[in-house]
């Protein structure tokens, strides 16, 4: 059998040749001989056919023309091959093979001239003609002939000579015009025909053959064919029977092999079921291929098996058959441009149905997002399907909310499902879904009906507030949020500018969250005035204090009219902040504050107010008598820095030994400790007196050291500055024609350089003619700049006197 892209040519054991289309239908029948057809050959165009038979007959004829050649030999002819371009007039050639290889060429007188290409090495077993190269196999090996030079360019010997060549024939196949694939026994060789370099030719052919791949297989080779960079191998397999423990014939295998430099890798393997494979031999199988469509034909005595390269459609079919829907969907997405049989949507819908049947409802619903895409019809169909099986909740999370948007009825149906059984889930959907997906009024009414049965349900109340918000009924939503004391109330007020609605709800807001409420009110003073807030909080002074305190922190002057009120509020609710308030406020009436503090016996605040009102002695007396705190008294005296206060403090402390100790430890830097020591009565026991005296001495020594250190620094700085001034004064001063005398205002240098002149330049850079300066007195021979002396800039003695 031989294969063409357009048809198949099949020869039988009874000498008939059938032409079949690619579907296997017989289109033509030719009777050649009463005995076995050995070989059929076609040219590339499929217009001429060569046939040889067991009785020695050879025929070459045109399928669509009357051209014909007949010859009968006296021995069986095993092979025939016509020139690939036989249709051309200069390519009328074919070869036959029996015991010798003969080339027939048509002469210019339309006669066929035979010539012997090779003989003497046994029967010719196989011939393949490609371009200008003819490859044939005999008992000894494989030869290649270059038809251009009519030279044999290589001989590839047979590897396993123990195998009978008639039982294990050689398989030849051209991959392209220069690559030959040889399979014989268990050996595979891939040969490349190459051009020989001119410097290497001498008496050698212009071409040579290089074996680029060579490896052995586990089984005997019955046929070879190329598949891209891989090989399709038809293998004859023998195995040991488990029953008889004897070697027998197994089913033939069709393998795809990836050649490697010294080995091979099996990509796939399929065992073929053909009739009578138990009796078949290696020579009974043949492999032919159609290059155009990647079709492979396996020929056995009773069957022809057609194999084709598996595409993605075949792969997807297999995955669907095995119920591997996710892998099938992925494969279809990757190869969506090449698949012809399947649609991604159909596979996806089958996958969803499969998941639903398995009870994996959540996964099925999740896959809907990807598979259904933007088709509203498909979405709505699936939603109704989920409703029928009672799984609306499963698909609710994955329903589209934008592009596409389904009918409002779909979303309402899902909300009703949740409202009947899951209030929390219902609230979640209301929060997540935009309000325009469903009829808001219908859902509001349903929620109100449910609240009649359970009026205190916080989840339903919160959800109703959100629905009112979507419906722009902010007043009702605000009332519900305040009732629930919900954190979103402030966000609602800000977002929808509801300040006019909360003028009478300030107390409620403060009770809910005073910090947030105060911040909101202060941030929006233009919408709710300070006076309005204070008025609303009149009956809740503790909240009023919180508001006014925060206002004072932000701005000491904005709430100045309420500072008097704040004194009593601080005294009542926040005493720790009263003293800072009194210190920072400039609008607080001191008399009122003093009265309140004295009534409540707030000593620290009273002391501060007394000192601020100028009554420092009373303040100091209160510290000493009320607080009995010498440290605070000393600190107060330091702050006031008043000698009389120190005197009062010493007089008050003179009969109190603990106070004397405190004064001795702290008075040293403000008052001479001798004044205190002289007043201490003899015999008075003073705690820690020794330590106090030691501290006084240490403080004195420290002062001495500080003075000495400062003196050293001062002397060093003075000396450094003096040296710097001296270096500066030693520098020269440029005098040129542009300078003038500061006294007579004429140029400092004479126009006639030959005349003598005398110039005096001071450090202040003022210049005078010497005759323009006043004569120095006998009391002070130094001269000074008249201008700087008149302006009291200090004396500047002359630094340079120029004469000529």
Automatic annotation (TrEMBL):
<dbReference type="InterPro" id="IPR000547">
    <property type="entry name" value="Clathrin_H-chain/VPS_repeat"/>
</dbReference>
<dbReference type="GO" id="GO:0006623">
    <property type="term" value="P:protein targeting to vacuole"/>
</dbReference>
<dbReference type="InterPro" id="IPR015943">
    <property type="entry name" value="WD40/YVTN_repeat-like_dom_sf"/>
</dbReference>
<dbReference type="GO" id="GO:0016236">
    <property type="term" value="P:macroautophagy"/>
</dbReference>
<dbReference type="GO" id="GO:0030136">
    <property type="term" value="C:clathrin-coated vesicle"/>
</dbReference>
<feature type="domain" description="RING-type">
    <location>
        <begin position="741"/>
        <end position="789"/>
    </location>
</feature>
<keyword id="KW-0813">Transport</keyword>
<dbReference type="InterPro" id="IPR016902">
    <property type="entry name" value="Vps41"/>
</dbReference>
<protein>
    <recommendedName>
        <fullName>Vacuolar protein sorting-associated protein 41 homolog</fullName>
    </recommendedName>
</protein>
<dbReference type="GO" id="GO:0031902">
    <property type="term" value="C:late endosome membrane"/>
</dbReference>
<keyword id="KW-0479">Metal-binding</keyword>
<keyword id="KW-0472">Membrane</keyword>
<dbReference type="GO" id="GO:0030123">
    <property type="term" value="C:AP-3 adaptor complex"/>
</dbReference>
<dbReference type="Pfam" id="PF23555">
    <property type="entry name" value="zf-RING_Vps41"/>
</dbReference>
<feature type="repeat" description="CHCR">
    <location>
        <begin position="518"/>
        <end position="662"/>
    </location>
</feature>
<dbReference type="GO" id="GO:0008017">
    <property type="term" value="F:microtubule binding"/>
</dbReference>
<keyword id="KW-0333">Golgi apparatus</keyword>
<dbReference type="GO" id="GO:0015630">
    <property type="term" value="C:microtubule cytoskeleton"/>
</dbReference>
<dbReference type="InterPro" id="IPR057779">
    <property type="entry name" value="Znf_RING_Vps41"/>
</dbReference>
<dbReference type="InterPro" id="IPR045111">
    <property type="entry name" value="Vps41/Vps8"/>
</dbReference>
<dbReference type="GO" id="GO:0009267">
    <property type="term" value="P:cellular response to starvation"/>
</dbReference>
<keyword id="KW-0963">Cytoplasm</keyword>
<dbReference type="InterPro" id="IPR036322">
    <property type="entry name" value="WD40_repeat_dom_sf"/>
</dbReference>
<comment type="function">
    <text>Plays a role in vesicle-mediated protein trafficking to lysosomal compartments including the endocytic membrane transport pathways.</text>
</comment>
<keyword id="KW-0862">Zinc</keyword>
<keyword id="KW-0967">Endosome</keyword>
<dbReference type="GO" id="GO:0034058">
    <property type="term" value="P:endosomal vesicle fusion"/>
</dbReference>
<dbReference type="GO" id="GO:0008333">
    <property type="term" value="P:endosome to lysosome transport"/>
</dbReference>
<dbReference type="InterPro" id="IPR057780">
    <property type="entry name" value="Beta-prop_Vps41"/>
</dbReference>
<keyword id="KW-0863">Zinc-finger</keyword>
<keyword id="KW-0653">Protein transport</keyword>
<keyword id="KW-0458">Lysosome</keyword>
<dbReference type="GO" id="GO:0071439">
    <property type="term" value="C:clathrin complex"/>
</dbReference>
<keyword id="KW-0968">Cytoplasmic vesicle</keyword>
<dbReference type="GO" id="GO:1902774">
    <property type="term" value="P:late endosome to lysosome transport"/>
</dbReference>
<keyword id="KW-0072">Autophagy</keyword>
<dbReference type="GO" id="GO:0008270">
    <property type="term" value="F:zinc ion binding"/>
</dbReference>
<dbReference type="InterPro" id="IPR001841">
    <property type="entry name" value="Znf_RING"/>
</dbReference>
<dbReference type="Pfam" id="PF23556">
    <property type="entry name" value="TPR_Vps41"/>
</dbReference>
<dbReference type="GO" id="GO:0005794">
    <property type="term" value="C:Golgi apparatus"/>
</dbReference>
<dbReference type="Pfam" id="PF23411">
    <property type="entry name" value="Beta-prop_Vps41"/>
</dbReference>
<dbReference type="GO" id="GO:0042802">
    <property type="term" value="F:identical protein binding"/>
</dbReference>
